[in-house]
Amino acid sequence: FFKYQENPEWHGKKVLVTAGPTIEPVDPVRYFTNRSSGKMGYAIAEEAAARGAEVTLISGPVMLDVPHGVHRVDVNNAKEMWEAVNARFEETDMVIKAAAVADYRPSEIVQEKVKKHQDNWHIEMEKTHDILKSLGEKKQQQILVGFAAESEKTEEYGKNKLRDKNLDAIAVNNITQAGHGFDGDTNEVMLYFRNGREEKIPLQTKAMVATALLDALTNFFLRQGS
Ligand code: CTP
Ligand code: CA
To answer: What is the superkingdom listed in this entry's lineage (predicted)?
Structure first.
């Protein structure tokens, strides 16, 4: 019984997957983060490795085991994720960016624990580095696949990100619909490709979504004739 099939197209390809949230500290005991279990990214990493790719998984803090055959690099915040991704980008064939990167971090990290003396606490936040956008600006042979979690105008916002970040494909999910994304084990995404092709991956387990996604992406490797 073969659960997975090695694809010749994926064999030996260097695939970088990011997964999970980032956490942005404000003092030694508190941080800002966002909702991401990491399950989607981990499922993609596992599936790519099963197809024969050389997979590096850059992971924010999550409660998941390292998938079989995958090399995991642990990071905490957006800056560390950027450094880990950027250091490996040149030699990478494909980046799949499933991570939920924090968009803002506290402008200053307070060195000592902040005591609750005041009734209100105003925290100034600054934007983090947009990792995917930077990759889109400097990419050469690399295939870039983004994710987008939207609560409205999913097609419009998704296609905007595809264009603005210079991606080859983007997987968009609508977080307001039941069973889509975040903590659960299921997901449904719309795939938009650079060439205008669209493909719906219907609601199913994240492992099955990963399989469908990689099937769809196989065409990119086929087209390169490698
Ligand atoms: N992303 C990234 N670096 C960031 C923020 C996002 O690399 N600092 C990546 C995500 O990993 C994802 C894609 O960009 O693959 C889209 O993320 P999303 O949060 O949907 O979009 P943003 O560009 O951050 O815009 P907004 O949150 O305002 O919708
Ligand atoms: Ca964001």
So the answer is: Bacteria
Minimum CA distance residue for ligand 1 atom 21? 148
pLDDT digits (tens, 9 = 90+) for 3-62: 456 688 999 999 999 999 999 999 999 999 999 999 999 999 999 999 999 999 999 999
113 appears as a binding residue in the annotation: yes
Q: Pick the residue whose CA is nearest to atom 27 on ligand 1.
A: 103
Domains of the chain, earliest start first? 14-105+126-223 (3.40.50.10300)
CA of 165 to the centre of ligand 1 (A): 9
Beta bridge partners of 125: 106
The ipTM value here is: 0.98
- With a 6 Å cutoff on the Cβ, whether 77 touches ligand 1 is no
Ordered alpha helix ranges (H), the chain:
39-50, 78-89, 131-138, 154-164, 206-223
Q: pLDDT, tens digit, for every residue of 57-102?
A: 999 999 999 999 999 999 999 999 999 999 999 999 999 999 999 9
Tokens of 27: 């003092």
> Is ligand 1 within 6 A of the CB of residue 26?
no
CA gap 107, 125 in Å, rounded: 5
The CB-side HSE value for 96 (13 A sphere, CA atoms) comes to 29
Residue 103 is labelled as binding a ligand = yes
Among 101, 100, 96, which residue's Cα sits nearest to residue 17? 96
In a 13 Å sphere around the CA of 77, the CA atoms on its Cβ side amount to 13
